[in-house]
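Figure 6 in text form: structure in, sequence out.
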């Protein structure tokens, strides 16, 4: 009771209740009034119209005027995880609390902790084991006997012990704070164990510690263990501070401190992020330009194909058309035979040209082996028909490796033009061709033992076409002609 006619009751599953004997009214105060846990162990009337309420989640004060609870664990839990099983006020505005392990005394706004080191026969209390008598004495019933204490006869406050850092381990590796302050560790070695030393000669068993990390969250954490473990620390700079106390109220004025830093992983460094962005930009820019270059190459290829179709096939079809008209107008069969033979020859040439164009753009024929086979087929069919011996040599050729479309097309057409000229105009009996591919350059050489090219007037459209195709693939074409034969050489340097 806190006043005559008013009775307060603790309920094991409902909070606390206030009963007025005169009016007969009963009021219940629980979670709706701010009580964190309605499993109440014991209550006691304190000073200033307050009801001390010990519950399963800790300790609370109920203000009877405002009908609201103040919860100690919201700031700093003085119970250190223990339960209050009995309470009693004394005549000096103090409150005695018997815990499952230890004894607390609250007065003047602070708690003081007592244990067996202070003279308790046991630090274990039970329900109703703390009682304050009219003479001012407080009776304490423990598992090993009863004690009587007068609040005014309590010893003066014991000295606050100084605290020191006794040792530091990083991933179970000893580190000397004196030699490595601040300590630097990596993000994957962010397990730090710090040992604290605080010596109290009066009550060594009551020494408690609290610590904090001054990096964002600076709340104090209390513990009775002298070893602090810091795990899963984010990259950054930290300052560890620790204090010691024997009564839980007064702490070391000069905290023990330790500065250390956790380096970020490679991918969290600003320079790495900048480099990654730059690399991403370069890759994107390169891919874009590669795409544009490929589109331009395809456009140039289509233009060349259209040009070939117009120049070769268009001119051939025009000649076939003219011969056809001549046949239609000419009644003489003997003269028509000459035109018909020309039409037949031009048709075969047209089929060959169309075959070359289709082969040059066929993606299924894009290897060096396909080019070699095409060159051998053409040389064999053309030179054997002219009774000319021939020899083809291929050096440094990986038949399965890819070759760009424009290089494959122009190499073959230059080879074809050279072989055709040798078969038709050189009078040669021997033709040799060599194709070499090495990391520095591509070399195509065609030689014959004919009469060579005599005079500038014999440099017809065939040589001009070969020079044009050499320039298309950034190559150099050279023609060497003597009375003993002709040598045509194409060199394309690798980029």
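Output sequence:
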């Amino acid at each position: 009771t806190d006043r005559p006619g008013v009775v307060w009751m603790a309920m094991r599953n409902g909070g606390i209740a206030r009963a007025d004997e005169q009016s007969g009214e009963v009021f219940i105060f629980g979670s709706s009034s701010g009580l964190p846990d309605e499993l109440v162990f014991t209550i006691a009337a304190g000073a200033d119209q307050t009801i001390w309420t010990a519950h399963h989640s800790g300790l609370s004060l109920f203000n009877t005027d405002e009908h609201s609870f103040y919860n100690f664990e919201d700031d700093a839990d003085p119970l250190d995880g223990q339960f209050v099983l009995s309470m009693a006020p004394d005549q000096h505005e103090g409150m005695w609390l018997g815990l499952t392990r230890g004894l607390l005394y609250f007065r003047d706004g602070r708690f003081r902790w007592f244990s067996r080191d202070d003279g308790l026969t046991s630090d274990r209390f039970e329900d109703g084991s703390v009682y304050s008598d009219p003479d001012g004495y407080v009776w304490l019933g423990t598992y090993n006997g009863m004690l009587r204490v007068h609040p005014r006869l309590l010893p003066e406050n014991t000295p606050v012990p100084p605290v020191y850092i006794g040792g530091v381990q990083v991933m179970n590796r000893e580190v000397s704070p004196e030699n490595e302050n601040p300590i630097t560790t990596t993000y994957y070695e962010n397990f730090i164990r710090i040992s604290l030393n605080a010596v109290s000669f009066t009550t060594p068993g009551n020494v408690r510690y609290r610590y904090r990390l001054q990096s964002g969250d600076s709340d104090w954490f209390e513990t009775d263990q002298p070893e602090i473990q810091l795990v899963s620390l984010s990259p950054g700079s930290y300052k560890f501070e620790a204090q010691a106390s024997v009564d839980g109220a007064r702490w070391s004025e000069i905290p023990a401190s330790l500065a250390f830093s956790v380096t970020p992983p490679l991918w969290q460094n600003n320079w790495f992020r900048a480099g990654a962005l730059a690399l991403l930009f370069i890759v994107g820019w390169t891919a874009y330009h590669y795409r544009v270059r490929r589109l331009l190459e395809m456009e140039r290829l289509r233009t060349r194909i259209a040009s070939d179709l117009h120049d070769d096939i268009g001119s051939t079809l025009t000649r076939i058309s003219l011969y056809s008209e001549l046949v239609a107008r000419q009644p003489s069969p003997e003269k028509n035979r000459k035109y018909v033979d020309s039409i037949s020859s031009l048709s075969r040439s047209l089929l060959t040209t169309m075959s070359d164009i289709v082969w040059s753009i066929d993606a299924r024929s894009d290897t060096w082996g396909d080019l070699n086979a095409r060159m051998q087929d053409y040389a064999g069919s053309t030179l054997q028909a002219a009774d000319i011996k021939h020899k083809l040599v291929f050096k440094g050729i990986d038949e399965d490796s890819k070759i760009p479309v424009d290089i494959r097309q122009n190499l073959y057409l230059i080879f074809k033009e050279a072989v055709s000229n040798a078969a038709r105009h050189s009078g040669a009996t021997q033709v040799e061709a060599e194709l070499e591919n090495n990391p520095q350059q591509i070399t195509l050489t065609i030689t014959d033992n004919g009469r060579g090219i005599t005079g500038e007037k014999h440099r017809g459209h065939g040589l001009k076409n070969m020079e044009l195709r050499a320039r298309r693939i950034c190559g150099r074409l050279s023609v060497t002609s003597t009375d003993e034969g002709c040598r045509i050489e194409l060199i394309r340097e690798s980029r």
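Caption detail: The helical segments are 270-329, 333-361, 368-385, 405-426, 461-472.
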